[in-house]
Amino acid sequence: MNPTPAIQIAGLTKSYGDVHVLEGVDLTVEKGSIFALLGSNGAGKTTAVKILTTLLKADDGTATVNGFDVRTQAQDVRGSISLTGQFAAVDEILTGRENLILIAKLLRQKNPGAIADDLLARFSLTEAGNRKVATYSGGMRRRIDIAMSLIGNPPVIFLDEPTTGLDPEARIEVWQAVKELAEGGTTVLLTTQYLEEAEQLADRIAILHGGRIIANGTLAELKALFPPAKKEYVEKQPSLEEIFLAITGKSNSTVPAGNTTVKES
Amino acid sequence: MTTRFFGDTAILTGRSLRHIGRSPDTIVTTAITPIAMMLMFVYVFGGAIDTGSHESYVSYQLPGILLITIASGIAYTAYRLFQDKNGGMFDRFQSMPIARSAVLWGHVLTSLVANMISLVVVVLVALLMGFRTGASVLDWLAVIGILALFTLALTWLAVVPGLTAGTVEGASAFSYPLIFLPFLSSAFVPTDTMPGPVQAFAEHQPVTSIVDTIRAIFAGQDPGNDVWIALAWCVGLLVVAYVLATAAYRRKFA
To answer: B22 at the A interface (CB within 8 A)?
Structure first.
């Protein structure tokens, strides 16, 4: 009936000494969807991602990625994924283009140079391509970081807090990149502490809290968990972010504009 | 898997060699302290040191200076490993379907190349200062072989702090005692003038046998047993360091 899910987790636990970070996490991510794992700082999002990307071993429970067990088929999992960690994992001393070529070579891709040039163009980094990454802005580093993750077209991509520490413009650039990915059929699991980010991007959202998934569903389903919507009229002041984006001319259709809106609460 | 290992090691070695190409100062910094020491020993202390041999003092102390060069050069391996670990490159590599040990080997081979270049610089300065040898091509190959083994052993040792240190300073500080080791050896003065316990230590630590071997080869003499003791020290150190480094790596990235 349903094809194998891209990610399936059951009863996953992980402790560091006395600190129980994950206390039985269950989760299923369908192929080709964008799944947001939402949680505050220290909720265990990064730990979960590290287990799924074979960087950490879980204490108990099972997890499969692209049908492969992360414990017993780690190398197959690694061949099916790419990870964009919490901090841009780029080689600062190399140029952007060299970073891309390095990863393409390690993945034994044909024509690493052509792949690099193509990705630089896709992420509007062609001009910066031959500069050392050390000279890049935060948004550019994130973009080259994500571009590196796309090499070899892995079926599952993990993005751990892809927009933390980015300014609003850079955040929108990253969102755009993630959306394009999912349109190409890639499964994306992203972690975030920003509610708006999950709302903007994700098909499904799970909330990780106290080591467990306490809510899981589409945005509409999560909203339905709360008391029925009632209409009230509120005057909505533009947020500072909207003002900033309007002034700098980077306003984007993904950012709601307007003053008076009907707000469902 | 083995072809994967060699390919990945070559790619990753190319990457960190490019780092060295971008900051050649690491090679200059590695060579400059030993060169300064060499100038001081030859032109300040050297006249007062009676080595009991008829070779020039610059030739006498060169083997010790070469080992100091290696000891200071390997600190960069710890430094670069630490940067990779903290900058997230390690996590990226570890989540890719590559040969895992290639990540370490890339750094180790880079250290070998970088240290060999630093050693050439130091030997060239020594030649300007009057170092002469009648060593044949084969003799030189033997010297290069011993120095390469010593470099590999110390580099694998440097991998341990590179992987486990909490700070950059901690990652590179471990090499200071290694730089000091040649002073407690036959590198600069004959050991027989040293008081009993110091002499006992000096004669039974790796540097003395390595220094004596290289010195004998440069002087065109037969190093005798020293060469085997030196090789045993180098290989023993290499094995122990490799095991420690691999264990630290497993613990970190199980």
So the answer is: yes
